[in-house]
Amino acid sequence: MRVLLIGSGGREHALAWKMSQSPRLEKLFVAPGNGGTETIAENVALDITDHGKVVQFCTAERIDLVVVGPEVPLVAGIADDLQAAGIAVFGPSKLAAQLEGSKAFTKALCDEMGIPTASYAKFDTLEPALEHARATGAPIVIKADGLAAGKGVTVAMTPQEAEAALRDCFGGAFGEAGAEVVIEQFLEGEEASLFAICDGEHTVLLPSAQDHKRAFDGDKGPNTGGMGAYAPAPVMTDALVERAYREIVAPAIKGMAARGTPFSGILFTGLMITADGPKLIEFNTRFGDPECQVLMMLLESDLLDILEATAHGRLDTVTPRWKRDVAMTVVLAAEGYPGAYEKNTEIGNADGLDSDNVRVFHAGTKRENGRLLANGGRVLNVTAIGETVADARERAYRAVDAIDWPQGFCRRDIGWRALEK
Q: Are the C-beta atoms of residues 37 and 43 closer than 8 Å to each other?
């Protein structure tokens, strides 16, 4: 098979690494890719916002399958344009991707299908939103309605934080994503993620995972795109997984099909495990980043077979197999992230650390004149597997400590919830 993978992050390096193991893979292109993907695939300087150019490339290169990594192209409708040209694609349609593209869309689906989630209200102007927040009190959750690269959510513990978050949204801090705002009830509990691959009709559950969104140890600091993750998440017992599927995932898939917009791709369900059971925080319509990295380390089956079957509506013909191990990834980020950070700093000793149990996935990197340079906020995802959380953690941090990058930082407490259980 000839495959085009769209994206440039750690998620895409992990997907490329796993697909490259398939005996059915003839050629893998990654657009635009990064310093890691170029070692196992051909990076191409393709403007992924120009869907016509993407279709032309696929036609010229006889692409059999396009795998879309990030959410922005999906919300922009790239899957629709590829399918219209007769090109198979792993990823949801533009309408189905609204599950991630609009918080208000998802809340309306929850209302329609009886999916348990936080109570909410939506606003398109500042003053009514401020009045609602003041009347509700803190803690309270402020969410930019649209895509904000994982940074448009504020868990406001004080009225002042809530007001500042609302002023940021309506003041343009998140561009068009903040033109509308959803204000939610604060949910108490432990967060976890559940993943389901769907082909519009059939569904296969993947292992659960737990992300670490805050920038610093102890879950302190600003929200990020994710500073580390591990899988499976101990909080997600078999009973909780079954309940979350029955009450949240299955109704969402049923509701999308009933609307005439069946969901095909991967449905990433962000959960809060409350005293009353699992409640939906958000849906994402692509593999998580960095959750994808740990899932790929645990997958024993041929990823390409799974993605192709999904794209062609034949998911019932494959049964993914998973290792019984625990996987953990630690994100190495540039100092200053998620705020301003320096680019083009050199990274030493990141190559050569890979083994059967450890893999360094690249996110924001590039290679120039034989040097590996940091080219983004989240730069490397150091990932390891082990029989226990402690084993995986020890291997991951040992590899982290072997990397020479003074301008980088990481959290030192990834997996702390699991270690406390």
A: yes
Each residue of 160-183: pLDDT tens digit? 999 999 999 999 888 888 889 999
Q: Is the peptide bond before 32 cis (omega within 30 degrees of 0)?
A: yes
How far apart (Å, rounded) are the C-alpha atoms in residues 76 and 97?
9
The closest alpha carbon to 121, from 112, 154, 131, belongs to: 131
Nearest 5°: phi and psi at 287?
Answer: -60, 140
Cα distance between residue 277 and residue 288, in whole Å: 23
- The owner of tokens 């939906």 is 280
Distance of CA 174 to the CA centre of its chain: 19
Largest CA distance in the chain: 60
CA 156 – CA 159 distance, rounded (Å): 7
Cα–Cα distance, 282 to 270 (Å, whole number) = 5
Phi, psi for 373 (deg, rounded to 5): -120, 145
- Rounded to the nearest 5°, which phi and psi values hold at 289? -135, 100
Sequence-distant (6+) residues with CB within 8 A of 257 are 200, 201, 263
pLDDT in tens, 217-228: 999 998 888 999
Q: Which two tokens stand for residue 38?
A: 């170029």
**Torsional sign, CA 125, 130, 136, 141:** positive
| Bond prior to 320 in cis (omega within 30° of 0) | no
DSSP 38: G
* DSSP class of 163: H
Euclidean distance between CA atoms 375 and 148, whole angstroms: 20
